Amino acid sequence: MMTNTLRSFASGLLIATTTIGAVYLFGPSTAESTAKPAKSMEKQILSEDEMIEQLASNGFVIHTEEEWNKQLASASANKETEEKQGEKEKKTAEEKVVYRAILSVSMGMTSIDVGNALEKAKIIKDGMEFYKEVEKRGLENELRPGTFEFESGMSMEEIISTIFK
Predict the structure, then answer these.
(1) Cα 141 from Cα 115, distance rounded (Å)
(2) pTM over 0.85
(3) Per-residue pLDDT at 78 exceeds 60
(4) How many CB atoms lie within 10 A of CB 30?
(5) 17, 96, 116, 121: which could form a disulfide with 101 (CB 3.0–4.6 Å)?
(6) What is the per-residue pLDDT across 4-56, written as a single tens digit (0 to 9) for each?
(7) What Rg value do the Cα atoms of the chain yield, rounded?
(8) What residue spans carry the Basic and acidic residues bias annotation (predicted)?
(9) Domains and CATH numbers, the chain
(10) Could you tell me which residues are beta bridge partners of residue 36?
(11) Residue 143 in contact with residue 111, Cβ under 8 Å?
């Protein structure tokens, strides 16, 4: 009895598969909906003013091509003006920046230490350049302990004369 049940089940699967294949191959090529379309989906012919009104009521902004080109031109002119003003402000801001630092030189500090401290305080650009200038002048052993005030506009000569004897 088990064999007959299994054969019947296999025959049923074969018939179902054949039927589905035949419908797929020989059936209609496009699916058609039997439901009626909603009112919003029905074909409506709107005038240009009605379309603009409907879009505007949904939050859209509508421009003609001429209005759009005018807006683009004015926006690019504003951008160029802002960029020029930003460059001027940046130049004036860069010119006005002055760094001030108070440096405490203690016993045991070297001119390399002083140069690195001045570089961190943005008084000079390169601490090693400061050290080389001090060494070139032969002042590396004449470092004077104390507290000194510096500004970023000072020359290398002024800085060296302030710290060294």
Answers:
(1) 14
(2) no
(3) yes
(4) 4
(5) 121
(6) 898 999 999 999 999 999 998 888 777 666 666 555 555 678 888 888 888 88
(7) 43
(8) 79-91
(9) 100-163 (3.30.1490.480)
(10) none
(11) yes
Q: Are 150 and 104 in contact (CB under 8 A)?
A: no
Tokens 């004897």 locate to 165
CA distance 84 to 61: 31
Backbone φ and ψ for 149, nearest 5 degrees, come out as -110, 135
Cα of first residue to Cα of last residue in the chain, in angstroms, is 118
> What would the DSSP string read from start to end of the chain?
-HHHHHHHHHHHHHHHHHHHHHHHHHS-SS----SPPPGGGS-----HHHHHHHHHHTT-----HHHHHHHHHHHHHHHHHHHHHHHHHHHHHHHH---EEEEEE-TT--HHHHHHHHHHTTSSS-HHHHHHHHHHHT-TT-BPPEEEEEETT--HHHHHHHHB-
State the CB neighbour count (10 A cutoff) for residue 143.
20
